[in-house]
Amino acid sequence: MRRAQLDIQLKTPEQIELMRAAGLVVAAALQAMREAVAPGVTTADLDAIAEKVIRDAGAVPSFKGYHGFPASICASVNEQVVHGIPAADQVLQEGDLISLDCGAILDGWHGDAAITVGVGETHPALLRMAAVAEDSMWAGIAAAARGCANGRGRLTDISFNVEKAVRSAGRYGIVEGYGGHGIGTEMHQDPHVLNHGKPGKGPRLVPGLCLAIEPMITMGSPRTIELSDGWTVVTRDSSMAAHVEHTMALLDDGVWVTTAPDGGRARLGDLVTARQPQPDSIN
């Protein structure tokens, strides 16, 4: 059987600048929610905070109305992995773990990112899982930057390095069936980016390629089920989960993490393009 041809859209540096503007809106919304997370806060409260930040910036929430999704963010608590629907009766409790996934469209271009944070005093093992997920995301982004720079990189180099970082950190489940994606004038574009696999396969990593990298890991089994709401994905064994994400763009002189306020420099150093403004000059 012949595989379907991928429709991968490469962006110009000018288009990536527009994606950066959208990415900064997402970053601001995530930061506002991070500061608001506390026992007694509802996931609907967090959704309202994010939507206000996005609309005040002149942008539009990517998620609201997407295939009928009813909210501006995905709020996934504890065993919920991704796509949790915010609700006024979902009240955060001390020790919960919440993943907040947020997207924004500005001038037709998308930013997409997610964080996982603890609610109040959270068990150190859960915070470590969230840190492992984040470390694996950065390992994947770094692999993309190196592969683009040396001209030998392939898409699954990202997948391999995400998995390697997770496996080396402990016995976590890596969720299958969900992963990262291309991004630009649509929130989801080709190619799909797995969080596991062998390196050296798939499309080449070249300047202009823009991807959302998003590991999802669990404290137990990687198997998941979708709830009857048609959106919320939970772990089959009810183990806790973490989900993180950044949007990144490859350029001919480095990578730009468009949803990170510093462009990724703190985690990636000189792999980050030199053309971006420094953090203190970003409005």
Descriptive terms for the model:
15 strands; 283 residues; alpha+beta; four-stranded antiparallel beta sheet
Major sheet: 5 strands, antiparallel
Return Rg in Å. 18 Å
Q: What is the quaternary state of this protein? A: single chain
Continuous helix count: 5
Low-confidence stretches: 278-283
User: What proportion of the residues is helical, as a percent range?
Assistant: 25-40%
Question: Can you list the strand order of the major beta sheet?
Answer: 8-7-9-14-15
Global geometry: globular
Q: Percent of residues in beta strands? A: 15-25%
Cα-to-Cα separation, first versus last residue? 51 Å
Class computed from helices, strands and strand pairing: alpha+beta
> What integer is the average pLDDT?
95
| Element-by-element helix/strand order | HHEEEEEHHEEEEEEEEEEH
